[in-house]
């Protein structure tokens, strides 16, 4: 059975984006000379990508070629009229637990939960998240969208790996306890 993996960057003070969703603070951290913070290795394991509508809109706002062509990408939203503007992408508006459970059973590859906070919370609330790779960026941004919203279900996680990079970024890998 495949796993649902959250791979996400957070500021040192626990935010995944500025209050308006902006991710400009992430570009201040260069890629290390020895790799890409594990991103390429993650993509090799992934067959499906899931993200919330706000994250999708933010990615589209970068005005770059869609970075996930070739991956089955699912945008989770309550907006049934959301217009999908990227290849290999579909909309999911209901039955998140059933769809994810079926994907985990059917897919030979893992599922990458990109974000954002509300969707992460929904995955935790429904017991769908198996692993988290949290990249802690050594930057305090002061305010923003928290990695875990205030109403997130209390859960226990086990630290299974750490990676430190010369830029000061640290990847912490957790599995559900």
Quick structural summary:
The chain is α/β, with parallel strands linked by helices.
Overview of the structural elements:
The chain is globular and about 40 Å long. An eight-stranded mixed beta sheet has the order 5-4-3-6-1-7-10-9. It is built from four helices and ten strands. The protein has one domain (4-176): Dihydrofolate Reductase, subunit A, CATH 3.40.430. The model has no long low-confidence stretch (mean pLDDT 93). Helices cover 20% and strands 32% of the residues. The chain is of the alpha/beta class.
Salient structural properties:
Dihydrofolate Reductase, subunit A, two-stranded antiparallel ribbon, 32% strand, 20% helix, 177 residues, alpha/beta, eight-stranded mixed sheet, single chain
Topology, element by element:
Layout: E1 4-11, E2 15-17, H1 39-45, E3 46-52, H2 53-61, E4 72-76, E5 89-92, H3 96-106, E6 110-115, H4 117-125, E7 131-137, E8 145-146, E9 157-164, E10 170-176
Parallel strand pairs: 1-6, 1-7, 3-4, 3-6, 4-5
Antiparallel strand pairs: 2-8, 7-10, 9-10
Overall geometry = globular
Structural class: alpha/beta
The biggest sheet amounts to: 8 strands, mixed
- Tell me the fraction of residues in β-strands, as a range: 25-35%
Cα-based radius of gyration, to the nearest Å: 16 Å
